Amino acid sequence: MTEPLSLQLVGSKALGGAERWFLRFATALGECGARAELGVRRGSELDRLVGGSPPLPLHRLPFLSVWDPWSRLALSRLIRRLRPDLVQTYMGRATRLIRLGPSSRPSRGPVHVARLGGYYKLGPYRHAHAWIGNTRGLCDWMVRQGLPAARVYHIYNFADPVRPVSAAELAALRAELGLTQDAWVLLTPGRFVPVKGHSDLLEAMAILPPDLAGRPLRLILLGDGVLRPELERQAMRLGIQDRLVWPGWRTDPAAFFGIADLVVFPSLDEETLGNVILEAWAWGRPLVTTLFRGAREIARHGEDAWCVPCRDPRALAAGIRALGEDPSLAAALVGQGARRVREDFGREAIVSQYLDLYRTLCRT
């Protein structure tokens, strides 16, 4: 039997968590030889990232607005030409523009699968034939909101394989960022938006001493976003600006994980999964995380992460200090995190779950 052909669609202009996952997932599909093609918004940040060497055949589409007729026409023509067995959409714009028949599986034509990575308003998603959520909690919530349980499927995200980083690259990054060799480096990756909890982390930095375990403490805030000016003002007010590094957004964070002594993830409860947890485990870095929705589901306090309440700077500071001053505890968390990412969140296993689901949906 021929493997199903999937068309993966995202219509976003900017780059966020869903778009980064789309890129990682598309790369994995291409590398495993899956039958899949991609559709992205022409001129978007995602287009610029995949346009040079797309992992799969790439189609640039208008995606001008939620209802624009040009996008509907372009999508209809593409689907008629490719004749995919399954169309998987990400986020509201691409999902709204795809209408492939009644809410149950159509007698002919492709299956529409909407993939959700957050607790979005479900109106734009209800017309799909099936739904994928990246946490069990999100799937349970979708069912409570009225989606049919038999067509809601749970598949976690995977952690990207670690890219080897040379000593020279690490040294160059330290020099670029002005980090001394003895600096004890905290890393927090993420957009500067309210849900990421950066303000609490800055308060925690003000509680911590300038040195930790006899080494100068530095925090790399890897990202960008609308809250950056406000966060910079907060840092000035707290008097910690000399301990912070603001490198902006980088498409490849590998070297940053390479120089980090600890990963901190201070998100608020609304955070759905938290890919940073998986990335810290994959890179073998000890992790301090708040107990937001996703962390409560996948992280285990004292086993693979140090978990603290959301919106609690003192607890964040205490967790950072605990791991900084107890290398044996940090090493134990790293070992268990590596096991978790290998056994529960490996790329091959997660992609296989997606492909198995595609086969099942295309047979029914």
Please describe what this structure looks like.
By secondary structure, the protein is an alpha/beta fold. It contains 14 helices and 14 strands. It has helices at residues 17-31, 45-50, 69-82, 91-97, 136-144, 167-177, 198-207, 228-238, 254-259, 275-283, 293-298, 313-325, 327-343, 347-363, and strands at 6-10, 36-41, 58-61, 86-90, 111-116, 130-133, 152-154, 184-189, 211-212, 215-222, 244-248, 262-265, 287-290, 306-308. Helix 7 packs across helix 12 and helix 10 crosses helix 13. The longest helix has 17 residues, at 327-343. It is elongated and about 65 Å long.
Give a brief rundown of this model:
The protein is an alpha/beta fold.
Low-confidence stretches: none
Structural category: alpha/beta
The tally of helices reads 14
Which value, in Å, is the CA radius of gyration?
A: 21 Å
Q: Walk across the major sheet and give the strand order.
A: 3-2-1-4-5-6-7
CATH-derived topology of the largest domain: Rossmann fold
Tell me, rounded to a whole number, the average pLDDT. Answer: 94
What's the architecture of the largest domain in CATH terms? 3-Layer(aba) Sandwich
| Helix share bin | 40-55%
Q: What is the H level of CATH, i.e. the homologous superfamily of the largest domain?
A: Glycogen Phosphorylase B
Principal-axis shape equals elongated
Order of helices and strands: EHEHEHEHEEHEHEHEEHEHEHEHEHHH
> What's the CATH class label of the largest domain?
Alpha Beta
Q: Termini separation (Å)?
A: 15 Å
Estimated share of beta-strand residues: 15-25%
Number of strands: 14
Domains (count): 2
Specify the biggest β-sheet.
7 strands, parallel
